[in-house]
Amino acid sequence: MSDGTPADLFFDAAIGLLHRVRDEEAGAISAAGTLLADTVTAGGRLFAFGAGHSSLAAQDVVYRAGGLALMNLLAVPGVVGVDVTPATLGSALERVDGLASAVLGTSPLRAGDALVIISLSGRNALPVEMALSARALGVKVIGVTSVAYAAQTTSRHSSGTFLKDHCDIVLDSKIAVGDAELALDTIPAPFAPASTVVTTALMQAVMATTAATLADRGIEPPLLRSGNVDGGHEWNGRVMAEYGDRIFYRH
């Protein structure tokens, strides 16, 4: 690391990654947005899943001002975020075989729905099994991951495969293995992860594409408004009433 403050260099790295995903993943983003719009049009439901810090990008599109009301969080107890104690338990649960199948078996997911699975490495048993099991149910799967991990690490799933191998569409976040953008001679480990910034941007780009695609088809996108603007609660009440059978975070 040379010229510029660490903050400047981090912003530069993050902006560089955002430029890359905008340019290199444009086709996949368009395809993912179209898939979600197709699902909405056909009466299907939308879900997002992520484990640990990958769950942040999933949560960001659920019950979100300016976002699609139909995005639901598929939650796995002990895995969503770092709210368990010890926090390392969440990482351990990601490696447990059978957990994803148990969760899907008690979830509302059904054939014709769409599921976005977010996993930076895509190597742990949970996201791989989640994708395999969801597709076996007839669910369309969009994977958001760093494809580099498949070339530079080994899978932790019994099949030896990665999340990217079991998706209808893959969005590559371009994050380097290890998820740290900066290095200093005075610090023994790389630091400053950018995966949350990039993955969240990818998700919002897909959401924007979905909304615009629905509008192009003459369908009003079921968008939520901020509850902190006049009329926001009334607007959201109307949307939730209209699409209540496809919104699961209310119950």
Automatic annotation (TrEMBL):
Residues 36-220 form the SIS domain. Pfam families: SIS_2. InterPro entries: SIS_dom (IPR001347), SIS_dom_sf (IPR046348), SIS_GmhA/DiaA_subfam (IPR050099), UPF0309 (IPR022951). PANTHER family: PHOSPHOHEPTOSE ISOMERASE (PTHR30390:SF7), SEDOHEPTULOSE 7-PHOSPHATE ISOMERASE / DNAA INITIATOR-ASSOCIATING FACTOR FOR REPLICATION INITIATION (PTHR30390). Belongs to the UPF0309 family. This is UPF0309 protein ACGFZB_07560. It comes from Streptomyces cinerochromogenes.
